[in-house]
Design goal:
Blueprint lengths: L2 H10 L7 E8 L3 E7 L6 H10 L1 H6 L1 E5 L10 H6 L4 E11 L9 E12 L3 E6 L2 E6 L3 E6 L3
Parallel strand pairs: 2-3
Antiparallel strand pairs: 1-2, 4-5, 4-8, 5-6, 6-7
Length: 147
């Protein structure tokens, strides 16, 4: 998790304890994009409340606070565990061997398939050609994909 995401979670912990910060990322042009979730769903009013609570960040960035949508980001072991059985795309920091035996010489940085497992240290994805285990430390970005 990024330091800025930790900062946001700490800021919201007391005022909005049920808000889960799924992903916080600085994108081009100084915009801070924050994806949130809530047990009762994400409304415009909730996004506005979260934005108002992040005054110090609004001074440094243009904020975008939104719901995760159908291609929800997966950033924590609990996210991956919750969505075992769903299709996900996982992009790694460095190329990894493709799971297919006939293509062992090929390496890739993106894998799409069914999320079949998630432990405290890695995820297991049934990608095209076979099953691949990817440690969380090697995941650059991941999200659910439409089925």
């Amino acid at each position: 998790m990024s330091p800025i995401q930790s900062e946001i979670e700490e800021s919201l912990a007391t005022a909005e304890p049920q808000v889960e910060v799924l992903l916080a990322e600085v994108v081009s042009d100084g915009t801070l994009r924050i994806y949130i979730d809530h047990p009762d769903g994400v409304t415009l009013a909730l996004c506005e409340r979260v934005s108002a609570l992040l005054t110090d960040l609004r001074e440094r960035y243009a904020l975008e606070v939104s719901s995760p949508g159908s291609e929800r980001p997966l950033t924590k072991p609990t996210h991956f565990r919750r969505f075992v059985g769903r299709r996900a795309r996982v992009r790694t920091r460095e190329p990894r061997p493709v799971p297919s035996a006939e293509e062992q010489a090929r390496r890739a940085k993106s894998f799409t398939g069914e999320l079949v497992g998630a432990t405290d240290s890695e995820i297991t994805l049934a990608a095209d050609g076979g099953v691949v285990a990817i440690p969380y430390s090697e995941i650059r970005r991941s999200n659910l994909v439409e089925e």
